[in-house]
Design brief:
730 residues; alpha+beta; Alpha-Beta Plaits; 3 domains; four-stranded antiparallel sheet; 26 helices; elongated
């Protein structure tokens, strides 16, 4: 593979104009497709195989006019002190809101508007009422005029002294990432300048990463409605694509500078960079792709599509690093080197035979080798302590109760809870597949259950062979009591009585994620373990990599629970409202973080493997690996953390939580696991770290990440490390 990548990189360098034009053309084509496509919707949400989904499917069959994906809104009106919504003046204002919605702007997108006086949507004290509005399309498909009409519907009532708040997903908008994303890119730029000492070299990874992400995200936007991709999909692809795109280009450029220091011609240096560092990029990218594509195991279409879309962006990042980066290096010439470094790079100005000064990576590796047990214990105990909150993890899907108190959705949620009870915000929908007798029998049984506040009479369909029963629990939607009620209704019913609704869907979704976690973990870790065995020709090194990952991801989950569920340092990260952790967060972090964590494992340990294969002792090989790779790996980790941290400023809690979780996970994995625990374990294992049974060695194909076959192909032996050291210490 190294020989193929060498030819690819060298060819891209020599035909740089054609390669650059090809990528620019792809960017313009994807951009044109995105600009021509209609705005992406929120994406349909389904959980195949669950009772809640079966009920939704039954509703679509028996109640043709009812759509599960249509947006909903609740306009909550509360009378001032001493007044009631049934009084003439407040009642006139409420009826004005109803008539305004039915005949105003956006009425063509409205399926129904319920008059609270007819639907009896008035609290017992007659101070609170709500208007239920159902739309024909999802919240993301509502026009600006429709959404604005909804927001303005209660203005006159507010002017008359009534409190009017609006809840529901009709006010849903595309998530905004804020200025944090730009700040993250700026931090990445500063890190690159410090690492390379050259503006040209620093700008290359940023430029190529932005081109790759532009193509990926634009393609997702162009195909969003065709493939039913949610609006969050492009945000995830941008988050991961930026991080890996910058990192992969960083490693190629760094190795190119090393090859120039060896005195290679520029096209030869580009080819060798692609053949050596490019091999590591390919395998690092494969681990990320495996982790993302593996999300299909969960069997939730939305999550599967998110994983495949993000994996496509990663594939683009790998191709950009292997072709566009060498092409851009051809335009940059030797300007990728810091000004005034020529004499240092090629040995001028140093006394003959002088030992180069040890860099930071070398000094740190020697420190770990002197105290491996102490470093290992400190790393494991520290991450273990941070992981403790993960034992109190509570999962759920966010609703309006998780919104900041400054939003109208949250205030509407609180008004409904105060006026009608905490369970009113999480009604259960019981779908009866049978006649009126079965529906009446079901109502009688549910009324006798603990935890039930209200049971509405059954609403039959036109054919009379199905009915809907609405059940209001006594407790809030995310409580354990409400979950028990759902299970009690289901356990006492047959296959012809199904429980659905947002609360039941949340419970089924959480259960689905829990059930899929172990199979998903086994698949992803197993495939990546085999991949790393090919790369490192070892059994213990991949095993150590997998165990280190599990430690870092559990610690990251502990940090997420502490901040987003317990509220520790919440104000620092813009967390206005604590609550359960999203059900998809654990399995999502396992997938994404595993792929990203293996990046550092591949880039750092392949240098150690290369040194060991070329005759160095295990301890010295660890030092050599850190000498050549530590500075670049640290820079790559800081860049990735900066990019992910930029998404903490997003308006949507899901994006904010993912950005924080990935940022802390990369920090733990790169700086504690890979930089401390890995060298400590390798120091303790010695030669055993690189042990591979002979029979397995004969079976496994040699992928040659170290580039040994490339050197044989070029008719030369491995070069000495002296000139590389001069570059690293320059």
């Amino acid at each position: 593979m190294a020989t193929f990548l060498y030819r690819l990189g060298r060819g891209a360098f020599r035909r740089r104009r054609f390669v650059a034009l090809l990528w620019v053309a792809l960017l313009f084509a994807a951009g044109f497709g995105a600009a021509s496509a209609s705005a992406p919707t929120s994406g349909s949400f389904s959980i195949p195989g669950t009772e809640a989904q079966k009920a939704f499917d039954l509703l679509e069959q028996r109640f043709p006019g009812m759509t599960a994906n249509g947006a909903t809104a609740r306009i909550v009106i509360k009378a001032p002190d001493g007044a009631k919504v049934t009084d003439p003046a407040p009642k006139a204002q409420v009826e004005k809101i109803v008539s305004g919605l039915k005949g105003g702007a956006g009425a063509d997108q409205i399926a129904s508007v319920d008059d609270p006086y007819q639907s009896k949507a008035i609290s017992q004290d007659s101070r609170t009422a709500y208007i239920s509005t159902k739309y024909k399309v999802s919240g993301m498909e509502l026009t600006d005029a429709t959404r604005e009409a909804l927001k303005e519907s209660g203005k006159d009532a507010q002017a008359a002294g009534l409190t009017v708040e609006i809840g529901g997903d009709a006010l849903m908008t595309a998530p905004e990432t804020g200025s944090g994303e730009v700040i993250g890119i700026l931090i990445a730029a500063v890190v690159l300048v410090i690492t390379f000492g050259s503006l040209i070299a620093a700008g290359l990874p940023l430029l190529t990463a932005l081109i790759g992400v532009g193509i990926g995200v634009s393609s997702i936007t162009a195909l969003a409605n065709v493939l039913d991709l949610g609006s969050t999909t492009s945000t995830l692809a941008m988050m991961i694509g930026l991080a890996v795109g910058i990192d992969y280009a960083l490693f190629i450029v760094s190795r190119y500078r090393v090859e120039l220091a060896e005195g290679r011609e520029r096209d030869e240096a580009a080819g060798r960079a692609a053949g050596t560092a490019g091999s590591a990029v390919v395998f690092a990218g494969l681990t990320v792709v495996i982790a993302l594509v593996g999300l299909a195991v969960v069997n939730i279409p939305m999550l599967t599509k998110m994983g495949f879309a993000a994996a496509g962006t990663v594939v683009i990042a790998v191709l950009v690093a292997l072709t566009l980066v060498p092409a851009i290096l051809g335009f940059a010439g030797k300007k990728v080197l810091p000004a005034g470094t020529k004499s240092r790079l090629f040995g001028k100005g140093k006394p003959a035979g002088a030992e180069p000064k040890a860099n930071g990576g070398t000094r740190w590796a020697r420190f770990v080798l002197r105290r491996p047990v102490l470093v290992l214990l400190a790393g494991v105990i520290g991450l273990g302590a941070i992981a403790i909150p993960a034992g109190k993890l509570e999962m759920g899907l966010p609703d309006d109760g998780a919104q900041p108190v400054s939003t109208s959705q949250r205030r509407a949620y609180d008004l409904l809870s105060d006026g009608f009870g905490p369970g009113f915000n999480g009604p259960l929908m019981v779908v009866v597949d049978g006649d009126k007798a079965l529906a009446d029998k079901t109502v009688d049984r549910i009324k006798g259950l603990d935890g039930v506040a209200v049971v509405t009479p059954p609403m039959p369909n036109k054919a009379g062979d199905a009915a809907i029963i609405n059940v209001i629990p006594k407790d809030r939607p995310s409580s354990t009591e409400t979950e028990k009620l759902v299970h009690t209704i289901r356990d006492g019913s047959g296959d012809d009585v199904l429980v659905t609704g947002a609360t039941a869907m949340n419970i089924d979704f959480s259960q689905k994620m829990n059930d899929a976690l172990v199979p998903y973990l086994a698949l992803v870790v197993g495939l990546a373990f085999l991949l790393l065995m090919l790369v490192f020709r070892s059994v213990l090194v991949p095993l150590k990599a997998a165990l280190g990952f599990l430690l870092s991801v559990v610690a990251a989950l502990g940090a997420v629970v502490a901040v987003f569920q317990w509220g520790w340092l919440g104000s620092l990260f813009g967390v206005e409202q604590t609550g359960p952790i999203m059900s998809m967060m654990p399995i999502f972090m396992v997938g994404v973080v595993f792929g990203l964590a293996m990046d550092y494992e591949v880039f750092l340990v392949t240098r150690m493997r290369e040194a060991y294969v070329h005759g160095e002792r295990p301890g010295q090989a660890v030092v050599t690996g850190f000498q050549y790779s530590a500075r670049v790996v640290v820079a790559a980790a800081v860049i990735m953390i900066a990019v992910f941290s930029g998404f903490i400023g997003a308006s949507e809690q899901m994006v904010k939580m993912i950005g924080f979780g990935l940022a802390v996970a990369v920090f733990f994995d790169a700086f504690v696991v890979r930089m401390a625990i890995v060298p400590a374990v390798l120091a303790l294992l010695g030669h055993k770290a690189w042990w591979l049974p002979k029979w397995l060695d004969r079976i496994l194909p040699n992928v040659d990440v170290e580039g040994e076959s490339l050197r044989k192909h070029l008719g030369e032996s491995a070069h000495g490390p002296d000139k590389d050291r001069e570059l690293v210490n320059a």
